Amino acid sequence: MKRLKLTRPLTISVGALVAALGCADFAKAETPSWCGPKKASLALLDGYGGNSWRQVTTASGKQVVDQCPSITKYEYADGQGDTQKAISDIKGMAAKGIDALVVFGDAGPAVLPAITSVYKSGKVIVPYRVAVGGKEGTNYSKFIGSSFENDGVTWGKWIKTVLPKGGKLLFLSGPAGNSQGLDELKGLKSVLGSEYVFVNPQPFDVTNWDPALTQKVLTAEIAKNDKIDVIISDFGPSLVGALPAFTKQGKSIPAIATSDGNSLGCFWQENQAKNPDFKLFTVATGNDNVRLAVQWAIALATGGEKPKEEIFKADAFEDSVSGKPNPVQCRKDLPGAIYLSSKLSPEDQVKATSR
Amino acid sequence: MIQNPTSIVINNRQGLLSMPLARSFVTVVLSTLLLLIICAILAPSSISFGALKGSLPFAAIIAIVGLGQLLVVQHGGFDLSLPGSVSLAVVVSTHYPQQNDALLYQAVLLAIAFALVAGFINGLLVSVFRLNAIIATIGVNALLYAGVFATSGGVPSITTNLLAEIAGGESLGIPNAVFFAIAATALVSFTLKKTVAGRRFETIGASPLAGRAAGLNVRVHQMMAYVFAQLLYCMAGILIAGITREPTAFQGDSLLLPSVAVVVLGGTSLLGGRGFPISTVIAAFFLNQLSQFALSVGVPYSAQTIIQALALGFGIGVYSLRWTVNLKKTTGTKIVEERK
Q1: Superfamily of domain covering A34-146+288-314
Q2: Angle between helix A52-66 and helix A289-302 axes, rounded to 10 deg
Q3: pLDDT per residue as tens digits for the range B44-54
Q4: Which pLDDT value is given to residue A199?
Q5: Closest to B158 (Cβ–Cβ): which among A202, A336, A355?
Q6: Which of B122, B121, B94 is CA-nearest to residue B110?
Q7: CB–CB of B256/B74 below 8 Å?
Q8: In chain B, where do the E strands start and end?
Q9: What distance in Å separates residue A66's CA from the closest CA in chain B?
């Protein structure tokens, strides 16, 4: 899969629009190789659909489905963060006769029995991003993971360039014990030596990816630690509200390695002049993970050619120091809660997230 | 610390203050002081100026929702519509203006209108249709969340600069949210304790039957508990919208338990009756400082949770203990009776 490489913020809208239109035309003109001749129906099942990231992801999945004319019916269900509902959604879709299911298993192994029973009944089922346990061919057709360890490695390498002699790092992730945070930490530690000290409680500060809790946690950490050289967070946008805490305590915002978001990019542009240490590095936030999962599900259900990739790797997206692959991007005219790294055009993201 | 509570109370009473201090007030103040001392020893950074400035706005929010919950608890109810109500105020005050300062006041008025409607529905269901408060408010909570989704689609929106300045800014070095909490406390306290309507409100809470026998309009007073509670939740929601730059659409969810906890810590009986607004607000500070302390100690998350649970258990345990001792000595509930 090719990634859009855009160098100037101004060109994004035009470029993305052209790309999107191009994609749409392409879909009509020529069927992708992963789309086979067999007719099938497909459902996308979310464990929790209540934020913009998920809505952009869902819209991305839909876009892939639209490229394949063999898919006769497309359904979506939102588990609303309720494991019971997520399980009954999975079973319900299979009972309705849907042929292929793509599952965001937020509840982890808790949804594995439901996934296994659907797989055993002869359907195609592809869990993605969150590990649900089990084995390919026994419990599900294919698991499309995201390499969070790769994100950790990417951040670690950048930290080495801006802080070559080592320093104090603060790592924030979501709910306690989430596998994403643990994998990222593994990646970070594989690159960074002992001269880089993590000042947070091991393995990471728990924020639940909630901006209010992030704000509280960061306030406590700033008060406790005289110096923090780099903050690492796996959800950049939830950091935005908390960062002014540095200014309030009379310190400069430090360097940040995180995932991208329009609000974060704009915040950097507004505040970097006043905060000399504020460098920003982001990896793509990974909305496009769903694309690969949907392509696999369609290929298996319609008899198309299997995609070559089996794991989703998020690329680096913005770097305020080198400007490569992109300088920090901000679209002030668009809502903060969109992701310029996504292949879905900003305009389509606005459509997906606004009501 | 609480070995001889009676003497502490009596000293206080005969000393500086001319009005009797409620037991709950003394307990919560002493617990808070103890916590601050522990903070100073074990995690001094948690009471540093910067940390306090950062965490006080959140204490103020817990205090304001606690005051709302207090009014409902005084009438023997529970308001489980708090999460929906706070979240709705948050999304209305961020999504409606879409970062346009000029539309902010309209958004605030709209949020207040929603709060009034929700309050009247709660009040009607509980006081007129005699539904169980828990059931009625759960239903209204679902309705309010429908409103949250209709307004926001579950997506966060960035707040307006004006609201961020008002709610998240500082005056005289103190976060503005604290002033809002102080104003709300003063208003609730004064109304409950010093006005005729407030006294009637407490009387009816203690015994609706006695209130009815005395010729008071029980239904209206009960209904007003829910309406004013909603207005306080709305205020908290709008403040969160300003304090957090990009609040989620579910910001109220994490406030329900703390709101009940501070009411209980503040010494108000869950069976209804006399309410302690000032103690409730201090309990909010206690609870918030407790989580700041747990964060600052720098222990793993599991240990943070245990610390919070233990301290809460201690706070509530102190009450039960004192309550039993008191019961043995007197049949009344007021310290005044133990004076001689």
Answers
A1: Response regulator (3.40.50.2300)
A2: 30
A3: 888 888 888 88
A4: 92
A5: A336
A6: B94
A7: no
A8: 170-171, 174-175
A9: 23
The mean of the pLDDT values for chain A is: 86
CB within 8 Å of A352: residues ≥ 6 apart = A55, A56, A58, A59, A344
Q: Which of A52, A202, A210 sits opposite B300 (nearest CB)?
A: A202
Query: pLDDT at position B80, please?
Result: 92
pLDDT at B336: 46
Q: Is B53 on the interface with A (CB under 8 A)?
A: yes
Length of chain A, in residues: 355
Taking residues A25-51, what's their average pLDDT? 80
Helices (H), A104-256: 112-120, 148-162, 179-191, 211-224, 244-248
- pLDDT at res. A60: 93
All residues of chain B having their beta carbon less than 8 Å from the beta carbon of residue A334 are none
Confidence band, pLDDT 50/70/90 cuts, at residue B20:
low
Chain B environment of A332 (Cβ under 8 Å): none
pTM of the model: 0.77
CA-based nearest residue to A202, from A187, A183, A182, A174: A182
A211–B247 C-beta distance less than 8 A: yes
Boundaries of every domain in chain A: 34-146+288-314, 148-285+318-341
Pick the more confident residue, A22 or A240: A240
Give which of B49, B295, B306 to mutate to test A binding, by max A Cβ within 10 Å.
Answer: B295
> What ipTM describes this predicted complex?
0.76
Task: Flag if A49 and B154 touch (Cβ within 8 Å).
Answer: yes
Domain A34-146+288-314 and domain A148-285+318-341, same fold? Reply is: yes
Residue B17 predicted with pLDDT over 50: no
pLDDT digits (tens, 9 = 90+) for A67-89: 999 999 999 998 877 889 899 99
At the fourth CATH level, the homologous superfamily of domain A148-285+318-341 is Response regulator (3.40.50.2300)
Structure tokens at A78: 């939102």
